[in-house]
Design goal:
Elements lengths: L2 H59 L4 H25 L7 H5 L2 H36 L10 H5 L1 H21 L16
């Protein structure tokens, strides 16, 4: 076998490995997004039922249940942070893309890489701070004032949601850096296009 043939064979193997890795990441991405979207939908439904039942019991029967307020408050916190991770992955966060659209392809690619790196760093940092805050609330036994639900349940949404957002930016960075033929697409949205 000639030297050129062995290089061509290595190049073919590398492309196959990149394609398999991209396919595996794509499958993992779809699974995580499906689960996350289902959880966000379930939390939203629970929050709506809790608010509806609380209003009915308070207005129709004069029976206020304070735990409905805590359940809806915690649900809203979880919706915000898990929903932010979904939006980050879909590229649907609010952005001003006038400059981005005016750049040549290489400039857009560099901006996308920069945005991904900044997103990963900031999301990871705030997830770290959220983890410290959650652990502190757990160690101190903090609870809500009216129902004594553990406060760490609500706080846990912060590191989990921001950690998933960092993962979303990481997956998008992989998309940007992979060669065009093996790039898997965003699950909606138009960020970076």
């Amino acid at each position: 076998m000639a030297m050129g043939d062995s290089r061509q064979l290595d190049s073919t193997r590398n492309r196959g490995a990149v394609a398999r890795a991209a396919a595996m990441l794509h499958s993992l991405d779809i699974l995580i997004m499906w689960l996350l979207t289902a959880v966000v939908g379930l939390i939203f439904a629970c929050m709506m039922v809790a608010v509806f039942v609380a209003v009915i019991f308070r207005e129709a029967f004069g029976l206020p249940f304070p735990w409905f307020a805590d359940v809806s408050r915690y649900s809203l916190i979880w919706l915000v942070f898990l929903g932010s991770a979904v939006l980050a992955r879909r590229g649907e966060h609010i952005c001003i893309d006038l400059l981005h659209k005016a750049l040549p392809p290489l400039g857009r690619r560099l901006v996308n890489i920069t945005v991904c790196i900044v997103g990963i760093v900031l999301s990871s940092y705030f997830a770290f701070l959220g983890t410290r805050f959650t652990v502190l609330a757990f160690q101190q036994g903090q609870t809500s004032a009216s129902t004594y639900l553990p406060a760490w349940i609500g706080y846990l949404a912060i590191p989990l949601g921001l950690g998933l957002m960092a993962l979303a930016y990481l997956l998008y960075l992989v998309e940007v850096l992979l060669p065009g033929n093996h790039r898997f697409r965003l699950l909606g949205g138009t960020f970076g296009r």
